[in-house]
Amino acid sequence: MAIPAYRRPWLLFALLTTGLWGVWGAFAGAPAENGFPETLIYVVWAFTMIPPALYALWRVDWNWPWDRRSLIYGAAVGLLGAGGQMVLFHAVRIGPTYLIFPVIALSPLVTIVLSAAILRERVTWIGGLGILCALVALPLFDFSPGGAGAGQGLAWFVLALLVLVAWGVQGFFMKYAAPVMSAEAIFAYMALTGLLLAPVALAMTDFSQPINYGWSGPGLAAATQILNSIGALTLVYAFRHGRAIVVSPLANAGAPLITALISLAALGLVPALPKLVGIGLAFAAAALLTIEPEDQA
């Protein structure tokens, strides 16, 4: 008999992540469209990580472990996430985004393989079918026929693969570090490493170009990126309480689902056929992963 959702904290946190990231995804591109560079959006994101990090540390009485193992795990989670974002900035500059993002969307596959091989996580046929639906759905959300050319040779493809691996391994380390570190400490390290890479983002910014410093630029970036940051915190909690092999595809398929629905309902956009198929598969994945029996953990 399946355990009700309200008694499975990993599911509640995963669904919070999908909701927050779904809304964030629908409006995240607006600041850049308004003339605020993506590299500066990264800096804004890094600073929006501070409030949820302070809240998380407050919950554990400011217990932030600094032993060698915690430093290694915390740095691994933080640098893989923030470093992947930095590589993505360069990738989208030299290559076609309509090909880059479908590649990156497969990052849960890395998390699943590592979790199954190292952590020996397993799922029933219900969860397995949900994972399959999620992995098939992910690339469809970013499929856009036509558009830019192939970019600078295969450089963009190599960079996209690096982001895919970085974010996939990050998801694994979130779970791998859970037995020895609190979720709050893991997130604090994520916030710290994000801030440490902010000067790199500033160095990548072309300040010779006009930059929108108004509310529609950094102000809107802060309003959207705080959703990203809080979603990252709830994702860490989801990995803490649940199986990475289930949490990763659920969050990564559910968020584009919410984004697509918001775009359709609120922004007046009609998704192309591949995205409509992706919406259906993501809904099926979320439903299957929700009813996955808990006793397989």
TrEMBL record:
The chain crosses the membrane at residues 39-58, 70-92, 98-116, 123-141, 153-174, 186-205, 217-239, 246-266. Its main location: membrane. Keywords: Membrane, Transmembrane, Transmembrane helix. It is found in: Membrane. GO terms for cellular component: membrane. Pfam families: EamA. Residues 9-138, 156-290 form the EamA domain. It is a multi-pass membrane protein. The keyword Membrane applies. Belongs to the EamA transporter family. This is Putative membrane protein. The lineage of its organism: Bacteria, Pseudomonadati, Pseudomonadota, Alphaproteobacteria, Rhodospirillales.
